[in-house]
Amino acid sequence: MTESDPLRDLTTPALILDEARMHRNIARMNARIAALGVALRPHLKTAKSVDVARLQLAGAGGRGTVSTLKEAEVMAAEGVRDLIYAVGVTPQKLARVAQLRAAGCDLTVVLDSLAQACAVIAASREGPCPIPALIEIDSDGHRSGLRPDDPALVAIGRQLHAEGLLRGIMTHAGESYRVVGADALAAFAEQERAAATAAAEALREAGLACGVVSVGSTPTAHAARDLSGVTEVRAGVYVFFDLVMAGLGVCTLDDIALSVLTTVIGHQKDRGWTLVDAGWMALSSDRGTAQQATDQGYGLVCDLDGRPLADLIVISANQEHGIIAPRPGAKTQGPDLPVGARLRILPNHACNTAAQHDAYAVITADGASPMAFWPRFRGW
Amino acid sequence: MTESDPLRDLTTPALILDEARMHRNIARMNARIAALGVALRPHLKTAKSVDVARLQLAGAGGRGTVSTLKEAEVMAAEGVRDLIYAVGVTPQKLARVAQLRAAGCDLTVVLDSLAQACAVIAASREGPCPIPALIEIDSDGHRSGLRPDDPALVAIGRQLHAEGLLRGIMTHAGESYRVVGADALAAFAEQERAAATAAAEALREAGLACGVVSVGSTPTAHAARDLSGVTEVRAGVYVFFDLVMAGLGVCTLDDIALSVLTTVIGHQKDRGWTLVDAGWMALSSDRGTAQQATDQGYGLVCDLDGRPLADLIVISANQEHGIIAPRPGAKTQGPDLPVGARLRILPNHACNTAAQHDAYAVITADGASPMAFWPRFRGW
Predict the structure, then answer these.
(1) Facing A277 at nearest CB: one of B87, B267, B286
(2) Whether residue A225 is found in the same domain as residue A87
(3) What is the ipTM of this complex?
(4) What confidence tier does B198 reach under pLDDT thresholds 50, 70, 90?
(5) Would the CB atoms of A144 and B268 count as touching at under 8 Å?
(6) Which of A10, A63, A64, A70 is most buried (CB neighbours < 10 A)?
């Protein structure tokens, strides 16, 4: 039996997870961060799956990162005891944070303003338990956070420290998604490290504790050459990888563990089109490779065994229709794909494509049949 | 009490449905199609909600359109008895179609190839009941379908007719989403009508019955001035409307019934940014207005009562972060939006944004409190 056999019977479109590739991706990140002498704190938002989280956390000391309180609640119910909620907290969300902490989950919040710090202090005084916080640092102009030399950093740090709520700082170099190649990404990782450690130093010079210095993104985690002064690295998409990461040189196409199974529904032969039953509802509308050297459209087309088919990409996506065609400049038209033929589409952005589905149909690492189905959760 | 009061207590991000606007949109389409003297067959894929479908179908004789068999199964379980599955059918899906038909739902499939017709004929002969089909016509080069003068049309028609399975033809002028203004859209509607009726005539001239002549998209449905020869119109996004439709002139901003409630989580004041807790996970990655005269980014920002705030749009979206800023060239920076403030974001594409959520939080037409929650379903 080949790995493709169970895929012939699934309802399409379906989200396929190659477990062996995922294990390899997890092992690679675990080894890499261990070699750098820091802790790994996997981001659980990519998979939103208890089954995947268990594998990620096993090699990471049980430390996790979440992007929603729903993720925190699901993981806490599974016994995860150490989480960072890595999106700036709102006052309205602090009651749920306190409930999770009161139930035994060491959940840390993130903030970058005095208004948030005051809300956290008030909730800690008035609620069932103290809520510790990390101050977010802006290392690359990507989105939120304070520059390391912003006087507000120490001002906020003092407020939190006085209440015993200051845990440290965190930063996310999201702009690393625009940087290609190992050397450029290593320089970006150093920029992220430098901003984080400068912020930690600014707090310490003011006499404030800064135990946690948390950095990370998948590209910088894989590229970093020295993480002196950093205590932990956060990364998420490394678990599956995707075409955006391959375009940056962080992984190869063979590392991408996620794909969307689809069936051919028709053709427009004079235009060179093959139509399939995976539109944006199954692939997402993410066009993350549009600005890269190789634009993969809405995804790269593979055969049922996961081998890319010449230069076929999904050039257009409606709700339940995808249009497959050779990429501009391709030398061949690709193989004949009759109605009913099945294909696998590699995603631009694993987090986004996975979010369109309720479960992973897993090609298990031990080749067991039938396939495993791992549920995903969602919501906030 | 104002309509915004119940919105202060919801967990954000959340999908908000303004029921009064939706009722107005449904009534407008019902009246318009009745005036044209044809039947309306609402597309249920936009809302994927039993509650919304009930309102759409009540004024449309119980006829519906679906884009997945999951939608057909959910609607059939609710007693809907007349459905078109408007995505080219694959041989693998015919067993589920037959099950639905055997259970009493008159579900019609769509196809545009001899291979599909043969599969439908085989399944009709061997399965529990005949499966009637519409032949899809390509009226504008958008995606699937046969040109009305393609000899394959009559060839396929003959095969189906001989088995008593030919119901007629259908077309969808999807390229109408690129045409702006009432006159241009009316011309496009005429192009759609002309292709559909030409195809029906080609079948009839060959002695084949063509009872159903089904056309439609929301823009052409609202713009059509004459539908002679057409028997029914399909439309979906009219029920909610969105920024893409407003950009085409099909609706105004005041007609858009869907929005995403979000909370301010921070600022980058030197860059003029306000950060909110609605990223692409809540808004979708749809950038459908990117090619329109007014690019709305990832959505247009409104206050809690749904009034647009000057020229504020979501300029960037990560998974759980949205960045709000004035659109390029805006004259004002917009109001002060402190941490914890709540906003509503109008979506580019209602189908896509709604698909990111599990339920509608409904501002009920009668102003009743608490809000109603209408579940959405998904999957295939």
Answers:
(1) B87
(2) yes
(3) 0.97
(4) very high
(5) yes
(6) A64
Q: Say whether pLDDT at A90 is over 70.
A: yes
Cα gap A328→A262, rounded to integer Å: 22
- Best probe of the A interface among B285, B342, B348, B349, by most A CBs < 10 A, is B285
Residues B285, B175 share a domain: no
Structure tokens given for B198: 């030409």
Q: Which residue has the tokens 């007629």?
A: B168
A352, with CB counted inside 10 A (0-12, 13-18, 19+), is buried
pLDDT tens figures, B340-372:
999 999 999 999 999 999 999 999 998 877 799
Section A66-90 average pLDDT: 98
CATH of residue B345's domain is 2.40.37.20
| C-alpha distance from residue A92 to each of A339, B12, B295, B310, B354 (Å) | 52, 9, 32, 26, 24
The strand pair at B372-375 and B359-363 is best described as: antiparallel
Q: Locate B174 and state its tokens.
A: 């999807």
- Rounded to a whole number of angstroms, the CA Rg of chain A reads 22
Question: Which of B7, B265, B356 to probe by mutation at the A interface, max A CB count within 10 Å?
Answer: B265
Residues B215 and B300 in one domain: no
Domain end residue (candidates: B178, B205, B238) = B238
Q: CB-based contacts of B210: which residues, under 8 Å, 6+ apart?
A: B157, B166, B168, B169, B199, B200, B203, B204
Among partner residues B265, B351, B352, which is closest to A87 by beta-carbon distance?
B265
Do both B76 and B127 map to the same domain? Answer: yes
A215 and A320, same domain (yes or no):
no
Q: How far is B95 from chain A (nearest CA, A)?
A: 11
Residue B304 has pLDDT above 70, yes or no: yes
Residue A363 lies inside a defined structural domain of this protein:
yes
Same-domain check for residues A106 and A202: yes
List the domain range (segments joined by +) for residue A353. 5-15+257-375
Q: Which one of B138, B266, B355 has the shortest CB-CB distance to A144? A: B266
Q: Is the pLDDT of residue A4 over 80?
A: no
Q: What is the phi/psi pair of residue A97, to 5°?
A: -60, -45
Strand pairing report for B273-276 and B322-326: antiparallel
What pLDDT digit, counting tens, does each position of B151-168 carry? 999 999 999 999 999 999
CA distance B296 to B243: 8
Tokens of B116: 């599909």
Record the pTM. Answer: 0.97
* Counted domains in chain B: 2
Among A87, A141, A287, the residue with its CB nearest the CB of B320 is A87
Looking at the structure, tell me whether residues B49 and B134 fall in a common domain: yes
For residue A249, is it within any domain? no
pLDDT, tens digit, 9 for 90 and up, residues A274-333: 999 999 999 999 999 999 999 999 999 999 999 999 799 999 999 999 999 999 989 888
CATH of the domain at A130: 3.20.20.10
Q: Which residues, in sequence order, are CB contacts of B231 under 8 Å at separation 6+?
A: B38, B39, B168, B211, B212, B213, B214
Which of A239, A274, A307 lies at the terminal end of a domain, its last residue? A239
Element (H, E) at B76: helix B69-77
Shared-domain flag, residues A193 and A339: no
Residue-by-residue DSSP string for B193-241: HHHHHHHHHHHHHTT----EEEE--HHHHHH-S--TT--EEEE-GGGT-
